[in-house]
Amino acid sequence: MPExxxxxxxxxxxxxxxxxxxxxxxxxxxxxxxxxxxxxELAGGLRGRSFEATRRHGKRLFAGLDEGGALALHFGMTGxxxxxxxxxxxxxxxxxxxxxxxxxxxxxxxxxxxxxxxxVDDVDAxxxxxxxxxxxxxxxxxxxxxxxxxxxxRGSVKAALMNQRLMAGIGNVYSDEILFQAGLHPRTExxxxxxxxRRRLFDTLRWVLCTAVDHGADPAExxxxxxxxxxxxxxxxxxxxxxxxxxxxxxxxVYYCPACQT
DNA sequence: CCTATAGCCTGACGGC
DNA sequence: TGCCGTCAGGCTATAG
Length: 262
Known about the structure:
CATH superfamily of the largest domain: MutM-like, N-terminal
Distance between the termini: 27 Å
Number of domains: 2
Shape: globular
Largest sheet: 4 strands, antiparallel
CATH topology of the largest domain: N-terminal domain of MutM-like DNA repair proteins
Strand order of the largest sheet: 1-6-7-5
Order of helices and strands: HEHEEEEEEEHHHHHEE
Number of helices: 7
Low-confidence stretches: none
Mean pLDDT: 94
Helix content: 25-40%
Number of strands: 10
């Protein structure tokens, strides 16, 4: 699930359920997903604290703590958050469980343990250390920055869009969506784009991400003109009704419409 | 700098 | 029903 629009939704639900409540109990169920310190240190650093505000950067979510520092969340391929009241409602595959005072719980649910959680002192320093590019929906990421990110690249446009060091937030699904909306074939190479098409690609990228966020990153809500809900071999193209195809590009499954994307 | 590949993990799904 | 292969919305390390 978790690319930029999805993580934005997770941020909103975090904000709605889990701010300004002292954390009474921390249960780390999987040591494997803890980074920068041990499970014990993570639990110790959270217990008694409360979250004051969250910040999203690309696919990452940071929950700032009342006495400084932040909990950094990375959702991997299958991570999400669930808030619930009764212990009986704890979801399957809970890897980190927080119990707040006054009863409510927050679970980091992650069937495949490909994500990470950890404590960071300073979010900006962490982003720099990880060498993450600008968030793809931030003000700082304008068409000039996009152009600069692509300058001198030899590989595919898709790989560039998904490169978190160039721009943060786009993964396999949304890169497919952007290419579909831009009418570009998934194997299009960066040097094949002139200034005009780069500009159009940038506008498309912003439009796709904004629209996805506005519609709750929900495939059902984006049904109309989006490829998102048609990611299977032979599905019908939402634009031309032709057959969607699946090909392999650098080890990832790519869905596209051979008629619309040339 | 860039690509391709394997690996990390686990579950869902389809075919036999 | 059971077993097996394939696929899955991320990312890193490695080799070329």
